[in-house]
Amino acid sequence: MPVLVAHEWHSYSCEHPLEKRYFKEVVVGIALITGANKGIGFETARQLVDLGHVVYLGARNVVRGADAATAIGARHVQLDVTDDDSVAQALRTIADAETRLDILVNNAGVQEFDSADGPLAMRAFDTNAVGVVRVTEAALPLLRKSAQATVVTVSSSAGSFWAVTNPARPEFHLTNAVYAASKAAATMLTLQYAKANPQMRINAIEPGYTATDMTAGFEGGRPVQDSARAVVRLATLGAAGPTGTLRDEAGELSW
Ligand SMILES: NC(=O)c1ccc[n+]([C@@H]2O[C@H](COP(=O)([O-])OP(=O)(O)OC[C@H]3O[C@@H](n4cnc5c(N)ncnc54)[C@H](OP(=O)(O)O)[C@@H]3O)[C@@H](O)[C@H]2O)c1
Asked: Containing domain of residue 113, as a range?
């Protein structure tokens, strides 16, 4: 069973009464994060370690993953979300060491900026959408052993039909069709997993525009600490948290 966290989120300023209630229900547990050797995934892993969670840091490259895990006191598992054997082995490793999985963060993702073609689209969908299926399906048996299983898919508001058709939203002006479509698929998969597993909290999040390697060719972007905080908060809301939603740190987003 998850253990009540020793320290609550005193570093978070939030005046919303419902959110304060969520904070009181924060639990520590066993977490797996994909694509966690850098960027938002790495910072999410670091913050979860700081909160006292046992964190399995998934990375496709063994050296990059092991270095990242060592740096923050996490455990590395080799995990390429496009490789069924790699995903199965990673979940076997966790199952051999743990009795359950409490938190899964589907974070691994790619965004290509070259002109779209078949291979590029296949890679984007394989990573951003099919990867969610591979990892979630492999993790479900262990998640079912948790009393408060939570899945967070780091999706994107670029995959929101509402946002991309709303001229007032920045996503309206984005032209990266393949990335947007793959994230729409990731969000739909997350919603379907939520419907199929009502005993779990399963949500998709738009983390916020963030300065990472993915956005290095563009200006701006907030620090990974801010975006990871939103991911961690959603991953640790516990039983009182929402399920079957797409959201950002301000609340629920339309599909
Ligand atoms: N940055 C933003 O503004 C923003 C906004 C909305 C959503 N997102 C989403 O946030 C997530 C994290 O992105 P980021 O900005 O932190 O980008 P990032 O710094 O480029 O990190 C992406 C991570 O995904 C990993 N990855 C890629 N393909 C993988 C695969 N096949 N198997 C396992 N891991 C794989 C990368 O590993 P390698 O180091 O091995 O490549 C890296 O660890 C993505 O899903 C992205 O779409 C980001």
From this structure: 26-253
